[in-house]
Amino acid sequence: MWFYEKRLEYPVNITTPNAKLAQFIMSQYGGPDGEINASLRYLSQRFAMKNRIAMATLTDVGTEELAHLEIVATIVHQLTRDLSMEEIEKSGLGPYYIDHTVGVWPQAAGGVPQNVCEFQSKGDPITDLFEDLAAEQKARSTYDNILRVVKNTPEVADPIRFLRMREVVHFQRFGEALRAVQEDLDAKNFYAFNASFDAPVVCPPGNKQ
Amino acid sequence: MNRNACCTQNMGPHGARNNMGQARCAMPVREPARPCMENHMRHHHPDMGQNRMPAPCTCEDDWKQEVPVGNQKKLLCYIDEVSFAVYDALLYLDTHPNDDAALHYFNHHNMKRNFALEEYAKAYGPLNIGTMDDDAGRSWEWACQAWPWEGGNR
């Protein structure tokens, strides 16, 4: 169960619209490594975990990703409000404008609609946690790419740096969750089977399943 | 926070359950939201529809008697019920922000919800981060206790 908290996790106050930057940054809303796919990935995967440390990590990171997609959407919104028609046409935002005006809609920078095929929920804790580690790195790389473009626009770069930093923290936490899962298994044989389906384990040791 | 919370003490031992049990409230398509909510209000609040506040009351904490502390399953069920009443009122208030009776209803149930969440956290571990109070020497119960999809605490 969730309740909404009426604040951004990190403040966004953009004073100058910029349609070009909005097109780039919206990829972290609905793009392949965007925050929507991140949240759906973790909140879907947690059900197959047999280790409560991993369940907690996926729930709480998946929840934080919801806060991140709100930050990215706010950046896109503030970069596209008060645009002139001339700016919309010149910047290349025209095709997006035709379908969505300047509403926020989940798509990649190249215009591909948000697609859940960009992530997996395999029902295997080790498989899924490795994917999560990769996902955090892919998102970090994307924020690095965005930062190279927005480095001279501090009011945009500042919240993007915060989001990038969180990718690094999430990578660390998923690495720890993976270790917790592996500690329940035979160290000589981590990867040969699905720890949830073939040999269910519980953690912390001694807890009831 | 609660201007008149104690004045709704007669709503019965399971106020929220009463609301949930009304089919018309669960099916807003068949009944417009406002009549549905007014029905809640009329049932529980004799002052609904009048431009005066309920009379001052002298029964501040009587509603706490209805909170089933000491029984985990019943307390969680109570939290489910009162939380549903809070959320249903929240949606109603979004479109009727000046409805005094609805505001009163929300405040009263939100107070009961917060109290029940605190009691649950003290006895069985936290259900949200707002009621986390892990004392030194105890483990991080947020992660270590059963998650809702495990079915352990029902």
Note down, in words, how this protein is organized:
The complex is a heterodimer of chains A (209) and B (154). Chain A has helices at 19-25, 27-30, 35-45, 52-80, 85-91, 94-100, 125-150, 154-183. Chain A has 209 residues and is mainly alpha-helical. Chain A has one domain (19-108, 119-183): Ferritin. The model of chain A has no long low-confidence stretch (mean pLDDT 94). Chain B has one domain (13-49, 66-147). Helix content of chain B is 49%, strand content 0%. Chain B starts with 14 loop residues before the first helix and ends in a 10-residue tail after the last helix. At the A-B interface, helix 4 of A face helix 6 of B.
Say how many strands of chain A there are.
Answer: 0
Category from helices, strands and their pairing of chain A: mainly alpha
| Oligomer classification | heterodimer
**Largest sheet entry of chain A:** none
> Which spans of chain A have pLDDT < 50 for at least 5 consecutive residues?
none
Beta-strand share of residues of chain B: under 5%
**What portion of the residues of chain A fall into strands of 2 or more residues?**
under 5%
Largest interface: A-B, 14 and 13 residues
Number of strands of chain B: 0
Q: Helix count of chain A, per DSSP?
A: 8
Enumerate the spans of chain B where pLDDT stays under 50 for 5 or more consecutive residues: 1-58
DSSP helical segment count of chain B: 6
Rg result of chain A: 19 Å
Q: Any idea of the CATH class of chain A?
A: Mainly Alpha
What keywords describe this structure?
heterodimer, A: 209 residues, mainly alpha, Ferritin, B: 154 residues, 49% helix, disordered N terminus
List the helices and strands and how they pair.
The complex is a heterodimer of chains A (209) and B (154).
Chain A: H1 19-25, H2 27-30, H3 35-45, H4 52-80, H5 85-91, H6 94-100, H7 125-150, H8 154-183
Helix pairs in contact in A: 1-4, 3-4, 3-7, 4-8, 7-8
Chain B: H1 15-20, H2 23-26, H3 33-44, H4 72-95, H5 100-124, H6 141-144
Helix pairs in contact in B: 4-5
